[in-house]
Amino acid sequence: MKHYLKKIAAVVAVGMLTLAVAGCGGGEKKDATADAIKKKGKLIVGTATGYYPFEMADKNGQLVGFDIDVAKALGKELGVEIEFQNYAFSGLIPALQAKKVDLVIAGMTITDKRKEVVDFSETYFKSGQAMLVSKKYPGVKKWEDLDKKGNVIAVSMGTTADQTASKMFKNAEVKKFDGSALAGLEVLNGKAVAVIHEVPWVAIYNRMNSEATYAVLEPFTTEELGIAVPKGNAALLAEVNKFVKKYKASEEYKKAYAYWFVDMKWWDSVPQKKK
């Protein structure tokens, strides 16, 4: 992972989370069996925009990102159209449980706690937690440097960063926000010393706000991302796992990986609003 991290240089634009995605919020419950999805000809995918470069809006308001490419490739494999529904990250699993979406592709880490309520596909991406630190707080090299009384650590509520920071930090205060952009804003406003988040987000947010922040990109955790499907839907899970295995071995996956994490040719196609 290190090879691409050195090439990633970016920071998430403040306010870019406010993406209007068609069908946001959902409503009607759906039959999410594999056969039912194929019969209706449409796969409804839950995601949470604002997590660069996994899911975000370009300058034309179109949903783009690595996960979006994954979802579209899955739809192609199943022979169905894709409909995206956008939620706050903390609302994705409830939406899946309520059958408002068929599955979730949103940079979601596979954890034992989440596996109690949903099933996960095989890993489609490996990541880890890193630190975005305010330049007003220099010299941070490891997470223990931040764990001091009086320090505020910002996280996106319901994410693995939230769970990790809440468990590891014993002295600093961990504050939870509804989305990554609001957590980052807390650092830019001088109200938090750092944000804990996965490596790609930290690298991108630092690039977009390099005058106020610096990044510690060496991950202090190792995490695997999976596609979440409804608990107990063995047929759909088998279909998704079959796709993941095939897709990870394909040239299409390699091209998507290079485009979103190495070459970063998408950089000028998305808003880069600075505060």
TrEMBL record:
Boundaries of every Solute-binding protein family 3/N-terminal domain copy: 42-264
Superkingdom of the organism of origin: Bacteria
Keyword Translocase appears in the UniProt entry: no
PROSITE patterns listed in its UniProt record: PROKAR_LIPOPROTEIN (PS51257), SBP_BACTERIAL_3 (PS01039)
Keyword line: Signal
Annotated localization: Cell envelope
Keyword Signal found: yes
InterPro entries: Iontro_rcpt_C (IPR001320), SBP_3_CS (IPR018313), Solute-binding_3/MltF_N (IPR001638)
Coiled-coil region(s): none
Domain Ionotropic glutamate receptor C-terminal: 42-263
UniProt-listed Pfam families: SBP_bac_3
Signal peptide (UniProt feature, chain positions): 1-22
Similarity annotation: Belongs to the bacterial solute-binding protein 3 family.
Entry protein name: Transporter substrate-binding domain-containing protein
Record organism: Anaeroselena agilis
